[in-house]
Amino acid sequence: MGETTEHTDIAIIGSGPGGYVAALRAGKLGKQVTLIEKDPKGLGGICLHHGCIPSKSLIHTANLFHDCTHSQELGIHISNATLDFTQTQQFKSSVIDQLTKGIETLLKKAGVDVMFGTATFEKSHQLHIEQAHETLTLTADNIILASGARPMELPQLPFNGQTVITSKEALSLQQIPNSMAIVGGGYIAVELAHVYQKFGTQVTMIQRSPTILSQADPIVSELMRKQLEQFGVKILTNTEIASAAASKSGTILSTKAKDGTLTQLDVEKVLVATGRVPNTENLGLENTKVKLDEQGFVAVNEKCFTSDPKILAIGDVTGNPMLAHRGFYMGKIAAEVCAGLPSAYDAQVVPSVVYSDPEIAYVGLQEQEALKQGRQIITGFFPFSANGRALGSHRPAGFVKLIADPVSHVVLGGLLVGGRVSELISEVAFAIETASRLEDIAGTVHPHPTYSEAIAEAAENALKKGVHY
Question: Of the four listed, 134, 169, 174, 182, which is most buried by Cβ atoms within 10 Å?
Fold first, then answer.
């Protein structure tokens, strides 16, 4: 018997943040949509099952456990706090299950046809789909590629899922390891270093560059290094992995520092977090006109169209910043474009957050970037050590820094470090998107006592009218 052929208005490959949001938006716009996900249990993508959501669940638990055992200054004395990691993982799984069911319900209500299988391009408008028990040819007026990205593998440290792991396995461990080496110094490495050190693992970070969070403002890199070391994390910078070998306990890593110093580490787990690469292989893109950039990501324009007029691409597969909220935004744009609406990707900025302790959040133009460009700016600074809510919450570390144009006072960027700044950064992003001035922020009454007051205080300080610092 011949292969079944079906047609849909819009086919979407990948059900991550970009893919499922594109499906929901297109469905609500009256389009017939087929959403294709290769993992039968993966609706919602890596973010939901192996990234954003599980990591934040574990981060919350780790912070709470640490607070229970380090709150003597607040008059709280807990002598025998214990962690049931099995129950911790069950809580994490319950959060994922609840959100997955929510997505399933939303897709059903939007009339989206969800199909589990592996899709490859036969032509620009035609997909071959391998399902568990059958194959299918699917044609579409437009196809949206939302295949995402995956952890980068190092030649000397191939993943085995047991002793040399990715963040996916690190978030699903059933027992807390005694020791862990984290290769890399980016946001995933920093977040998981905090988590497992607080859970009781002896964590060693190995970073080839001179600093961790090397893309961040130097003051942030140094502050975060000090904070991690205070928690007990060992940090080796200017250091590379020379070789790796299996041991009884896990893996023996041989490292070489820039000054020639050789070190050996015998650790139970090795987490490799050195970056991500796009999922563009085995998609049959050679049968289309889709072009990739120099890093292998799919090139798109402001309409999310690739170089093939039938195919759009969204999310991590299109490159940096590889963030779920960018995927959400692009998914909506792509769906509206396919529906004939005059939409385009016009976001001025995309906020970034590191869910460390303290948190780091930044958006727009940063001071070091402005200096490199030779651009004139003014800055406003306010420390959380002068903020009543931060002090009362025992979270005095960190600050707010605003960057603005010296003539118009239009806000250009912001850098926030401290408790709950992940919830505050959107105020700065909104100010940039609306071309608000420092006077607009300073002139907006902020409730007291709150963390958000620090943003208004920083704006006042940039205008040289602050009174609290």
Answer: 182
Residue 223 to residue 273: CA distance in whole angstroms: 21
CATH of domain 352-462: 3.30.390.30
Q: What is the mean pLDDT of the chain?
A: 96
Which tokens go with 255? 């490292």
Query: In terms of Cα–Cα distance, which of 433, 440, 415 is closest to 425?
Result: 415
Give residue-wise pLDDT tens across range 283-307.
Answer: 999 999 999 999 999 999 999 999 9
Q: Which fold has domain 164-274?
A: FAD/NAD(P)-binding domain (3.50.50)
448 catalytic? Reply is yes
Cα–Cα dist 346/378, whole Å: 26
Structure tokens at 459: 């704006």
Q: What sections of 29-84 are H helices per DSSP?
A: 45-50, 52-69
Task: Compute how many other C-beta atoms are within 10 angstroms of the C-beta atom of residue 94.
Answer: 11
Are the C-beta atoms of residues 306 and 313 closer than 8 Å to each other? yes
Q: What is the CATH architecture of 4-151+277-338?
A: 3-Layer(bba) Sandwich (3.50)
> Among 103, 152, 118, which Cα is nearest to 36's?
118
pLDDT of residue 2: 55
Strand pairing class (118-123; 179-183):
unpaired
Q: What is the crossing angle of helices 17-28 and 324-338, to 10°?
A: 30
The pLDDT score that the predictor gives to residue 168 is 97
Q: Where are the domains of the chain?
A: 4-151+277-338, 164-274, 352-462
Contact 287, 303 (CB under 8 A): no
Annotated catalytic residue within 77, 325, 394, 448: 448
CA torsion through residues 206, 211, 214, 220, sign: positive
Residue 15: C-alpha distances to residues 12, 101, 107, 198, 341 (Å): 8, 14, 11, 33, 22
**Cβ-Cβ contacts under 8 Å for 265 (sequence gap 6 or more):** 181, 204, 252, 253, 255
How far apart, in whole angstroms, are the C-alpha atoms of residue 215 and residue 112? 40
Residues 6+ apart with CB under 8 A from 227: 356, 357, 358, 397
